[in-house]
Amino acid sequence: MHEMHNMPDSLYIPSKVLTIIGAINWGFVGLLNFDLVAAIFGKKSFITRLIYTLVGLAGVYLIMKHKKKLAMKKHEEEIKGEKRYSGKQYSWSGIQ
């Protein structure tokens, strides 16, 4: 598995803020057909495109961070020898 050691934690809070801004903007687009970012900075301006790009990169960063966290948790469980309940129960009679 490829480990990501170069993901600075200092980007976590700004990424969360940008992702929330993007979610609110998409909520406005979906509910009201109103693009707040474009209304503030101009529909085809460089700033608007930059904000959209930063929101997208923030989302990718958070996905990678979450994936890394899940991998570390799984690794820690394997080291401890913990087993998770799968939710399935098996019996010889086939009745569950």
TrEMBL record:
Q: Name one Pfam family in it.
A: DUF378
Return the InterPro entries for the record. DUF378
Residue spans crossing the bilayer: 12-34, 46-64
Superkingdom of source: Archaea
Q: Cite the entry's keywords alphabetically.
A: Membrane, Transmembrane, Transmembrane helix
- PANTHER family recorded: MEMBRANE PROTEIN (PTHR37304:SF1), MEMBRANE PROTEIN-RELATED (PTHR37304)
| Protein name (Swiss-Prot/TrEMBL) | DUF378 domain-containing protein
Source species of the chain? Methanosarcina flavescens
